[in-house]
Design brief:
Elements (H helix, E strand, L loop, with lengths): L6 E10 L32 E9 L2 E2 L3 E2 L7 H20 L4 E3 L9 H9 L3 E2 L12 H13 L8 H14 L2 H9 L1 H10 L9
Parallel strand pairs: 1-5, 5-6
Antiparallel strand pairs: 1-2, 2-3, 2-4
Helix pairs in contact: 1-2
């Protein structure tokens, strides 16, 4: 746990007004798709959505960053994320600091690599196609559920932004710590199934 305490787990996620991107998947009996009990209206609030970024670590988290435009480039990732957030966390943690970002194209841009090297920020090696190992994925799920239970629900992009920022600040650090503490067992479970689907993650 001392080693995990120096890791900042980061990710981007999209939250939409007109789709339930945080839905729970269930199995239905064949032929029951159109039964009233299996049909739910989801396009309540108009279109649009927001792309957000955040980072979590043991006993800490970054502010939630809301991108003003959806497309995240290497330049935007460096200027809007690495410079104002990650660099400060590296300074607070010290030389043991490790950045965990997944293998998205903007994260692997040459200018991003150059920035990380100039700031002496180490990046964690991360297995491809393994989002369930990243504890922040479960934090996104908790944030989505919190937004879904708001009454009244967000009806505009500005209301969605305000709701996301407010709910992010309300997420309990104990939950985040518990998710990070579970990484060892998650990794063991994935190794035991040789990287195939693991429903315990």
């Amino acid at each position: 746990m001392d080693q995990w305490a120096t890791v900042l787990f980061t990710d981007e996620s999209r939250f939409s007004l007109n789709t339930d991107s945080r839905r729970t998947f269930i199995w239905r009996e064949p032929g029951t798709r159109s039964l009233p009990s299996n049909v739910r209206e989801i396009d309540h609030y108009g279109g649009g959505g927001l792309m957000v970024w955040a980072g979590i670590m043991l006993d800490g988290q970054t502010p939630l960053h809301v991108f003003e435009r959806d497309t995240v480039t290497g330049v935007r990732y460096r200027d809007e994320i690495l410079e104002p957030y990650v660099r400060l966390f590296r300074g607070a943690v010290g030389p043991e600091f490790i950045l965990m970002d997944y293998n998205a194209r903007p994260h692997r841009a040459l200018l991003v690599d150059e920035f990380l090297e100039s700031e002496d920020i180490r990046r964690m090696d991360w297995a491809a196609r393994s989002p369930d190992l990243n504890p922040i994925e479960h934090v996104w799920d908790a944030l989505g559920r919190a937004i879904a239970t708001r009454n009244p629900p967000p009806r505009t992009i500005q209301e969605m932004k305000t709701a996301l920022l407010n709910e992010w600040d309300q997420l309990p650090q104990e939950m985040i710590n518990c998710l990070i503490s579970s990484i060892k067992s998650r990794c063991k479970a994935c190794i035991s199934v040789r990287g195939y689907h693991n429903y315990n993650c």
